[in-house]
Amino acid sequence: MKVALIGATGLVGNVMIKVLEERDFPVSEFYPAASARSVGKPIEFKGKTHKVCSIEDALAARPAIALFSAGGSTSKLWAEKFAEQGTFVIDNSSAWRMDERVPLVVPEVNPHTLNQQTRIIANPNCSTIQMVVALNPLHKAYGIKRLVISTYQSVTGTGVSAVKQLDDERAGNTPDRVYPHPIDLNCFPHGGDFEPNGYTTEETKLVNETRKILEDNQIRITATVVRIPVKGGHSEAVNVEMKSPFHLNEIMNLFANSPGLVVQDNVAENIYPMPRYSHNKDEVFVGRIRRDESCDNALDMWVVADNLRKGAATNAIQIAQLLLEKNLVQA
């Protein structure tokens, strides 16, 4: 199977290569592609050295699958060209997520949205992915009425330059600033760009993408996105108001039997999810599960995952695996 990776030299692209290797995805020909300044650079994949090619060369190879992680403008320019020749495009940018023709897929939640006609497939925002893995069993069992979300997001979600700003600040060096403020020993409620209503683009993504994935536009959602000085993963405090009554033991059983979800909830021994320990893992971790005593049929929970893996690369490769399982592409 021919597989192209557009954005192979980026932070998420590097993790995609690792996940393809770890999962032994059946790649017969690999085409790592990037911008013109990266063409010719060596990329290691499955013990072989490949040279980065141009996107034009990757297109000419007519791959069965093209993984895109090169930003929205690149996806808008190239995704349809790959799709028109029969390639399944799995796009990690925000370019196609809210297009009604394009499925927005988290394999544990809505695999049924993939079919032979869905040649462009959107990978959701990292914060949305981990949250809906935890929300899906609740929505199926009780129906979700309202969500109040606060995120605590790793600098890795912004990219290599943000990690460098944090490292430079910690080393006492003068950093090249990616953020409007220092990030070390700090946090700020600012993710993406501010919109006229006072919300940021990252907050709006959480609202719109969650409704689309759970297939329910009636869920009321509000969100606050916060950037914090960690590298391991994103954390979220999520308040869930449901339509039906529940027992906490039922919730625990639902979570324990939900694919991709790991319960870490033993406060007597200080066991709860933390980004430090989600790093390099593919699961979504949930803990601090408790009834919201201020609201009927509501609970609070803490959700953590590695934003570069389950929040980006792993979810994309899982989509590619789904295409194989559904016989939409042939190994």
Low-confidence stretches: none
Number of helices: 9
Output the CATH homologous superfamily of the largest domain.
Dihydrodipicolinate Reductase, domain 2
Q: How far is the N terminus from the C terminus?
A: 6 Å
Overall 3D form: globular
Topology:
Blueprint lengths: L1 E5 L4 H12 L6 E5 L8 E4 L2 E4 L3 H6 L4 E4 L3 H13 L3 E4 L28 E3 L3 H17 L1 E10 L6 H12 L29 H14 L5 E8 L6 E9 L5 H9 L4 E3 L11 H4 L5 E8 L6 E8 L3 H17 L6
Parallel strand pairs: 1-2, 1-5, 5-6, 6-7, 8-9, 11-12
Antiparallel strand pairs: 3-4, 8-10, 10-13, 12-13
Overall description:
The chain is α/β, with parallel strands linked by helices. It folds into 2 domains: 2-123 and 312-325, Rossmann fold; 127-307, 2-Layer Sandwich (Dihydrodipicolinate Reductase, domain 2), CATH 3.30.360. It contains 9 helices and 13 strands. The protein has helices at residues 11-22, 55-60, 72-84, 126-142, 160-171, 201-214, 248-256, 275-278, 309-325; strands at residues 2-6, 29-33, 42-45, 48-51, 65-68, 88-91, 120-122, 144-153, 220-227, 234-242, 261-263, 284-291, 298-305. Helix 1 crosses helix 9, helix 4 runs parallel beside helix 6 and helix 4 (126-142) crosses helix 9. It is globular and about 60 Å long. The chain starts with a strand and ends in a 6-residue tail after the last helix.
